[in-house]
Structures are given as structure tokens and as C-alpha cells.
Design goal:
- By secondary structure, the chain is of the alpha+beta class.
- It has a single domain, classed as Alpha-Beta Plaits (2-Layer Sandwich), CATH 3.30.70.1060.
- The chain contains 3 helices and 4 strands, in the order E-H-E-E-H-H-E.
- It has a 4-stranded antiparallel sheet with strand order 2-3-1-4, covered by helices on one side.
- Strand 2 and strand 3 form a beta hairpin.
- The longest helix has 17 residues.
- The radius of gyration is 13 Å and the shape is globular.
- The two termini are 16 Å apart.
Length: 91
């Protein structure tokens, strides 16, 4: 079982994302449980959210990671969801 973090940015906050991107990427790369990650994009092709897959069923780990994320600390997100996920296809 894996856990997925799904975050949607506040409208008009692309610059906040860009200003904190390097620190966010460092935070991603520091966690060995992160398996996949990337930005969600809006209709204009701009980054507008985040999707991060953790190889852990431990929701508390993901909650702690999310709280320490530089994007969250900068107030970027309009919404944050944490969901359990069962991978069926692995290519």
C-alpha cells in the first residue's frame, strides 16, 4: 500500500511556487520514501499543484512531510489531500 499527497495551489500563486521550488525539490529528494512526484498543470499548462507518491502506508509520515514542505510553509496550497493508494500496474 502506498500513500498519495495531492495538493492544489491557490489561484494566482505561481510566483510563490517558483520562489520556493528549489527548497521543495530538496525536501522531496531528502525523503527516501518518495517514489514519484511532479506538478499538476492547469489548462494553460502552468504548474498548479503537486502529486507525490510515498512508498508507505504510514499516513503520519506523509502528514509530517507535508507540514514541513516549503510550499506549505509559504502558503501555496488551497487544498491538500492524503489518500491511501493500491498500485495495480507497475511498469
Amino acid at each position: 500500500m502506498m500513500t498519495v499527497l495531492i495538493c492544489h495551489d491557490k489561484p494566482g500563486h505561481l510566483q510563490v511556487r517558483m520562489d520556493n521550488r528549489e527548497a521543495h525539490l530538496d525536501h522531496l529528494n531528502a525523503d527516501p520514501l518518495v517514489r514519484q512526484a511532479g506538478p499538476l498543470v492547469n489548462a494553460a499548462g502552468e504548474m498548479a499543484g503537486s502529486l507525490i507518491v510515498f512508498d508507505t502506508p504510514d499516513r503520519a509520515h506523509v502528514e509530517a512531510w507535508a507540514a514541513a514542505d516549503p510550499y506549505a510553509k509559504a502558503g501555496l496550497f488551497d487544498s491538500v489531500r492524503i489518500e491511501s493508494w493500491n498500485r495495480v500496474v507497475d511498469r
